[in-house]
Amino acid sequence: MTGQPFGSPVPPGTGWPGDPADRHTPVAGDEERVRALSSSAPDVDTLDARVSVCRACSRLVDWRESVATSGRRASFADQPYWGRPGPGFGDPNAPVLVVGLAPAANGTNRTGRMFTGDRSGDWIYAALHRGGYAEQPTSEHSGDGQVLTGVRIVAAVRCAPPANKPSTTEKATCRPWLVRDLELAAPRLRSILALGSIGWDATLAAAREAGWVVPRPKPRFGHGAQAALTTGQGRAVQLLGSYHVSQQNTFTGKLTEPMLDAVIARL
Ligand code: SF4
Q: Which residues lie with the beta carbon below 6 Å from any ligand 1 atom?
């Protein structure tokens, strides 16, 4: 698939399907650079490229790369791993954003595409397909030809965190990428689907930071929760919440397909 040494993260520009970066893409090494490189990104392609090479959070860089090198799950031991932040995926002109939590260590961190190659992805892409947003009901690898229309998927935190738990500092450091996603989407944005309370809180915080009007007190997260946001240009955007599509919720029946479909139908 690529020419990178097996068992190491994919260097930018080496032919991985969907890699938005090349070897000239500037790398953010700290929070200040994340702010500078996100706010100056003129479009989502540039934003995705810069996200995909970010190294601002040392704990997460160590974790994502150690999973990619020595920590691969046994069933994927013969596969190369992406080992970089997950760039946004989908329609660059989408009126709908989906905000997830963070890449999974053996999902996006392996395949290089949001919600791709794991059980969570099986759920969200199947639902987006039923809702008419995804061409295929599955999303198995970054070269599978999946196409999203009308939706772009991003995340609160773009690197796989240990135990799926990013720290407060890591969430804050990564937020400017999401702020810029909101700003770039704002002229045509209709609604945002936040998956889980972390996606919900990150979206509200990013919207505030982007200068949008956000209700106070902070709207409470819940499955089917709704909040009215207003962009800096006065455009109304509805925020909808869904329980996260993690196995913890889907295996236990806390989140069912009809529940997810009902929220997606409101987007
Ligand atoms: Fe960069 Fe976000 Fe990854 Fe931190 S979590 S290294 S800010 S992409």
A: 34, 51, 54-57, 60-61, 85, 157-159, 170, 173-174
